[in-house]
Amino acid sequence: MALLDISGVLGVWAVVVSCLILVITGAAYRLYLSPLAKFPGPKLAALTSWYEFYYDYFERGRFTWKIKELHAQYGPIVRINPCELSVDDPDFLLDEVFAFKSKLDRYPGATNHFAMDDATVFTVPHGLHRLRRGPLASFFSRSMVSQSQDLIRSKVERLCSRITEFQATKQPINLSLAFRCLTTDVVTQYALSKSYDLLDTPEFSPAWFRAVLESGEFALVGKHFPWLIPLMQGLPSWLIMKVNPEMGRFVANSEAIQEQVAELMDEKSGRRKLQERKETLFHYLLQSDLPPIEKTATRLSREGIVVVGAGSETAGIAMSVSTFHLLDNPDKLSKLRDELVKALPDPNVIPEWKEVEKLPYLGDKLINALKSAVIKEGLR
What we know:
With 380 residues, the chain is mostly helical. It is built from 18 helices and two strands.
């Protein structure tokens, strides 16, 4: 009996010592033997990704600003976690790393926490990403989008009427939400043929955008605790709605996209004929040259979910930031207003896009500057 007790204690100690050896050797490798060990940065960041998690979760997404501080302290190349470097040189990144000639795979650690690796934007292998990107880029090409100017014009007119309503009641308006409602309604109508009609909501649907924000925050948690992702995906919708109604609505819209794809797949197979046939992103992808394995219901629905999220938030926030800087720089606002008054004397008539882009200040200066700034900031 005594021998059994001794062997049990020794077994526990063996496990403890083994774990300590693994931790110590892992730490030594990250700090001194890793290929990234020669690059400057905080030792704690090199040791564990929880350094990043602290700033992103407990400091509410402040890691981006922390990286800027680290560059000021350590220089243009900084090690920000055990597996990643941050390079503060957008021109180098554009010309070398992300150049069109580059055939690099994406870093899996930057995408796997979204659990949508079959969507184009989160695809890791370069070849597969290029294959998936082809028809998607064609659907959102300049010529295709130009054919939907009436759709965009109608949504802009609805936004203008809502602004007039607020003006009449002398109530403040949240333009950030209003712009994101505009872009969400445009992209859902264009890609899904089913507008969410957020512009018609009384306060521009703040609950919806809080849910979008929370989904992004969960992705930050999932990056460091990946086992939480399948756990959350396994929860029933009714439970999510009860615990967090805002997130529940986001999940409900995602499920609606999945149902739309399922209906289309039934139609394509002949099992069901839809009452009203409209050209959507899913029609376009199914009719493309993609191989059958890339046309499954799961992949198409995730493509739609990503398109709605990315297409609404990015453009809406860009409009908000542009408005802020115009208001913060009265000389630029005055210059833009003078140009628009001369070029568009009737404010009730929204011009064609080809006319707008010819304007020397709005089309050539502001829009192109905005494109460049978005690209460069996205690489930081």
